[in-house]
Specification:
Chain A has 14 helices and 6 strands. Chain A has helices at about 1-5, 30-35, 65-75, 80-85, 90-95, 95-105, 110-120, 125-130, 150-160, 165-180, 185-195, 195-205, 205-220, 250-270; strands at about 10-15, 35-40, 40-45, 55-60, 230-235, 240-245. In chain A, the strands form 2 sheets. In chain A, strands 1-4-2-3 form a 4-stranded mixed beta sheet, with no helix packed on it. A two-stranded antiparallel ribbon of chain A has the order 5-6. In chain A, a hairpin with a 2-residue loop joins strand 2 (about 35-40) and strand 3 (about 40-45). Chain A starts with a helix and ends in a 6-residue tail after the last helix. Helices cover about 30% and strands about 20% of the residues of chain B. Chain B has helices at about 5, 20-30, 50-55, 120-135, 155, 160-165, 205-210, 220-230, 250-260, 285-290, 315-330, 345-350, 360-365; strands at about 10-15, 35, 60-65, 70-75, 90, 95, 100, 115-120, 140-145, 175-180, 195-200, 210-215, 235-240, 270-275, 275-280, 300-305, 310, 335-340. Chain B has 13 helices and 18 strands. Chain B is α/β, with parallel strands linked by helices and about 375 residues long. In chain B, a hairpin with a 5-residue loop joins strand 16 (about 300-305) and strand 17. The radius of gyration of chain B is 20 Å and the shape is globular. In chain B, the strands form 4 sheets. Chain B has an 8-stranded mixed beta sheet. In chain B, strands 2-1-3-8-6 form a 5-stranded mixed beta sheet, covered by helices on one side. A 3-stranded antiparallel beta sheet of chain B has the order 15-17-16. In chain B, about 45% of the residues are buried. Classes of the chains: A alpha+beta (about 280), B alpha/beta (about 375). The interface of A and B includes residues 109, 138, 235 and 238 of A.
């Protein structure tokens, strides 16, 4: 902070003399802990404070210095917070936003701008969710190909489901692709509301693969499995296969189970062999 | 493709103006399309381009000297833990492509708003000469089609002529041109020592029409290949990427049949087979540029070991097995290998690792590390 403040002049004023129009909705717990600062009479921190309260109002900062000072106050800013900040009126005159964005490790390009423009039109709950999960534009690259109404519907549903970041991204990508593949939006929304949303969407998006996995599942269930053995079809990246778990109480039972498993393997092999009658 | 019409603007780097390629371009293009510049007037981008910027980069030509090292190992060599590598080396004489395949990996690789042709071929040849003189006995295979099509711009550059002549002095080395164009007429008369392979990336007609936009037709590619054979050049086919579609078996069986009826195994150096693969970050760009009706964007692909999106392993194995069986059913003598595939895929398709297959093991035998040379 000391480095940033070097060469800057400021005056103390009361918070009632400052404009709060730049309130970009930073996280409240952070905002509460910050001293009150302003650039040219526009409050940049201490939005929750009431008069009387002193504010340090910077009067001669260059746009780059203002960005440095802002960054020292808010060393972390989520994407929605930054977008809300950077769209404040008159901000560009006082602060270099591209420079500030780079300080946060992001480069402003056309794609970023396009998705950020949409973000401002999404419900506040969606923006809060994106902040909480630290989602960035590249995590939701499909979104700008959907209409704004569809964006809002999907994002509101996903945000209200309190999903992990990874699940959110998978569901968004799958549902977005399905809509672009002309699956009716209602069908996609219905799948998203299901408790098995991920598997339902995958079935729709990957019908061929799903068919193969289903065939394997049916084949496996046609075999007589030894007692104490459970199995399930799993996908690990580009490979699908069978995960087998077994429980045995002693070596004799283990031996018996292995014999049963060998019989399953032998039947499986037979099923894979081409039918000589064909 | 009419290249003079295709390019909307041609920039010549001041440092390149005296180069043969720049001189030739100035003669071929109308003066109002050509501009000589001291340095690029466009910013080099840090991130990925937008679809519009990528499209535009294909129509803007920039002739400039290359300042880095021309000669490199194929990217497959960097993933030896997960892929079987065929010891390919690359010589990049430009970057970006004037054609427009939906699956092209350049969409996630390039970030320059122009198509570059490097004007200092003399430096590339010096580098090659130093390498070849230091390793004259090593059977290196050198390809020019990694980040630019080897031949689609050759009518402008005529680089093929100089490269073919250069490789006459190094008969143990092999030069490979890899293309989806039919631009061969410009080098057919150049004397060579039999170590030049002209290869075509080839797919069924349906895939060419739907996914390989702006490329030469199936017929044109086959015709160009025939002309090369007639001129004594070796040829090769890369059935890569195989793309799944409902009638894929019929399409690829026809492709095998077309190749087998037009050429003999003795005329074809090698046939490589590969399946659709791309970096995950390429998905957004492909979706925006080609929509979801493309067989590539709508493909059922999953993250594979190594990080690329690929078809399910069992489907890949089925596709490879089918293609190999089809080709071998016409003639068992075809030399076939899998490109950028895992040992598991090899074993499933050939019941063998490439090092155990006669006629292929030379390609896959680890080569001595290139002796470093400075030019």
């Amino acid at each position: 902070m000391a480095m940033v403040l070097h060469d800057l002049s400021f005056e103390f004023t009361d918070i009632s003399q400052c404009q709060r129009t730049w309130n970009f909705g930073p996280r409240h717990q952070l905002s509460d802990q910050l001293p009150a600062w302003a650039f040219g009479g526009f409050l940049i921190s201490g939005f929750d404070l009431e008069s009387p309260h002193p504010v340090q109002n910077v009067t001669n900062a260059s746009p780059e210095q203002a960005a440095e000072l802002f960054f020292s106050l808010y060393p972390y800013l989520s994407w929605p917070e930054f977008v809300r900040l950077s769209h404040q009126p008159k901000l560009a005159e006082l602060m270099d936003c591209d420079f500030l964005l780079r300080k946060y490790g992001t480069k402003s390009d056309d794609r970023y701008k396009k998705i950020s423009d949409f973000l401002l039109q999404w419900p506040a709950e969606v923006q809060e969710y994106l902040s909480d999960k630290d989602l960035r534009p590249f995590d939701m690259a499909i979104i700008d190909q959907l209409s704004l109404d569809v964006q809002k519907d999907i994002l509101s549903l996903l945000a209200s489901s309190k999903l992990s970041k990874s699940l959110f991204c998978q569901l968004l990508d799958l549902s977005g692709e399905l809509i672009l593949m002309e699956t009716p939006v209602e069908d996609v929304m219905a799948a998203l509301k299901s408790p098995n949303a991920l598997s339902e969407l995958r079935e729709k998006r990957f019908p061929l693969t799903n068919q193969k996995e289903l065939a394997l599942k049916n084949l496996m269930s046609s075999f007589q499995w030894p007692k104490g053995v459970s199995s399930q079809i799993l996908r690990k990246g580009d490979v699908h296969g069978l995960e087998i778990k077994l429980f045995v109480k002693d070596a004799t039972e283990f031996e018996k189970t292995l014999t049963g498993l060998r019989s399953v393997a032998s039947n499986w092999k037979k099923k894979n062999e081409p039918d000589p009658a064909l | 493709m009419n290249l003079i019409q295709h390019f909307e603007k041609v920039y010549l780097d001041q440092a390149s103006v005296e180069s043969p390629v720049a001189q030739r371009i100035q003669k071929l293009f109308p003066a109002d399309k050509v501009q000589i510049i001291e340095k690029p007037t466009w910013p080099e981008r840090a991130g990925m381009m937008t679809p519009e910027q990528f499209d535009q980069s294909k129509k803007t030509l920039f002739v400039t000297p290359f300042k880095g090292q021309f000669f490199k190992r194929c990217p497959g060599a960097t993933q030896k833990k997960v892929l079987s590598c065929c010891n390919y080396h690359v010589l990049n004489l430009g970057a970006q492509c004037n054609m427009n395949c939906s699956y092209c990996y350049l969409q996630s690789y390039l970030n320059s708003p122009v198509l570059k042709i490097y004007s200092n071929l003399d430096k590339a040849l010096l580098e090659l000469k130093a390498m070849a003189d230091a390793n004259p006995e090593a059977p290196f295979r050198v390809g020019t089609g990694e980040v630019i099509d080897s031949l689609s711009l050759d009518p402008l550059t005529l680089y093929s002529r100089e490269l073919i002549s250069f490789f006459r002095n190094y008969p143990k080395w092999t030069l490979e041109f890899k293309t989806k164009s039919a631009e061969v007429a410009q080098f057919l008369d150049v004397p060579h020592s039999g170590n030049v392979v002209v290869s075509w990336s080839i797919n069924p007609r349906l895939i060419i029409q739907n996914e390989e936009h702006g490329t030469a037709s199936f017929e044109s590619r086959m015709q160009a290949a025939r002309e090369c054979v007639n001129a004594g050049f070796q040829i090769a086919f890369h059935i890569d990427p195989m793309i799944w579609h409902p009638e894929w078996k019929q399409s690829y069986a026809e492709l095998a049949s077309e190749i087998a009826t037009r050429f003999s195994p003795q005329e074809v150096n090698v046939i490589s087979v590969g399946a659709l693969r791309f970096q995950p970050e390429q998905k957004a760009m492909m979706r925006e540029r080609f929509g979801m009706k493309s067989l590539v964007t709508s493909a059922e692909v999953f993250i594979s070991e190594g990080g690329k999106m690929r078809y399910d392993l069992s489907l890949r194995q089925e596709m490879f097995h089918f293609m190999i069986t089809q080709l071998k059913s016409h003639n068992p003598a075809w030399r076939i290998f899998l490109c950028m595939e895992t040992p598991e895929s090899w074993i499933s398709s050939f019941e063998s690792h490439p090092m155990q297959i006669e006629g292929l093991k030379d390609l896959f035998r680890p080569l001595p590390k290139l002796q470093e040379v400075s030019v």
